[in-house]
Amino acid sequence: MLTRRPSGERGRNRIGWLDSFHTFSFGEYHDPRHHKFGSLRVMNEDFVAPGMGFGMHPHRDMEIVTYVLEGELEHKDSLGNGEVLRPGEFQRMSAGTGIMHSEFNPSKTKPVHLYQIWLFPSRRGMEPSYEQRVIPKGTPGVARLVASPDAREGSLTIHQDARIYLLDLTGGGTSVMRIEPGRVAWVQVLRGEASVNGVDMQTGDGLAVEDETVLEFRSNGGAEMMIFDMVEAGGG
What we know:
mainly beta, single chain, about 240 residues, seven-stranded mixed beta sheet, globular, seven-stranded antiparallel beta sheet
């Protein structure tokens, strides 16, 4: 079963320095039909104005993955990490028993465009940790592993039975991915237009995948997508 989540139906929080789109319930946006999927709890697409950002604030018991599409994002946390996240880099922060962090756009002239994703951890009360890594460009049409429970293929470590892939079809073409029986998947179109098993999708669209073992991706004009391969039940 394939269920498309159109970009235009997402929740939206627009204030002076932030324009944020919420695939799932977040903050003041609440939709019981779209609260979570598998281990996914948050899928936010954010545009942050130059010189602005989120001040120091707490998290706990959540796996937080950030990917910058354009611009730069400066991260600081209570573990002593201070990094700038740039396009092509992924960040994973395991909040565990509790962590404080801030995120700012360090540029005085350019906005930053990013996705921030939260996943439920496999268990609560873990020690907080942080990781940032450049994910090299791979072969077009071949999904690159970005995060996994065992850090294989140089991926980030996430504390959940989930694997995150990045699929580059910016030049067009096709790709096929297999999903093991009993697992679910979520496809998020970051840029461009594509079809997944015949379902047409555009920038910002999401797709919930259930009871499917093969996903066929096609794009004529080009697309970049993030794919989540997860156990069906993923937290509360």
